[in-house]
Amino acid sequence: MVAAYPGFVPLVVYTLLRLVVLVAAFFVILWAGAQPLVAGVLAVVVASAVSYLFLRRQRDATAVWIAQRVERRKGATPRRGFARTVAEDEAAEDAATER
């Protein structure tokens, strides 16, 4: 059986790291005495800044992984089913209108 995602997926790693930073910031701000709503808003701001400053390597790896995936999908043959090629669609329309 072939794995759908061989190796690690940088998107998952980056997302999990950002979630860890967000939760940690939330609890630190909450522990400092802020109200939960204020702590949530401040945690989002702090987590965004921290992830921008310190997670550059993971963010870049994620961007490269997504770009490679898009390029692979562009070159892949379309799946059968709802996704038909333009030529097949035009041929079906021409056949239907010529009756």
Structural description of this entry:
There is one protein chain. This protein is mainly α and 99 residues long. It has one domain. It contains 4 helices and no strands. It has helices spanning 10-31, 36-54, 56-75, 86-97. Helix 1 packs across helix 2 (36-54). It is elongated, with a radius of gyration of 23 Å. The chain crosses the membrane at residues 12-31, 37-55. It comes from Xylanimonas cellulosilytica (strain DSM 15894 / JCM 12276 / CECT 5975 / KCTC 9989 / LMG 20990 / NBRC 107835 / XIL07). InterPro entries: DUF4229 (IPR025323).
The number of helical runs is 4
Q: How many angstroms does the end-to-end distance come to?
A: 47 Å
Class per helix and strand makeup: mainly alpha
Tell me the count of domains.
1
The description of the largest β-sheet is: none
Anisotropy-based shape? elongated
Number of β-strand runs = 0
What portion of residues belong to β-strands? under 5%
Taken in chain order, the helices and strands follow as HHHH
What would the average pLDDT be, to the nearest integer?
Answer: 85
The parts where pLDDT drops under 50 for at least 5 residues are: none
Oligomeric organization of the protein chains? single chain
> What level of helicity do the residues show?
over 70%
Report the radius of gyration as a whole number of Å: 23 Å
InterPro entries: DUF4229
Organism: Xylanimonas cellulosilytica (strain DSM 15894 / JCM 12276 / CECT 5975 / KCTC 9989 / LMG 20990 / NBRC 107835 / XIL07)
Keywords: Membrane, Transmembrane, Transmembrane helix
Protein name: DUF4229 domain-containing protein
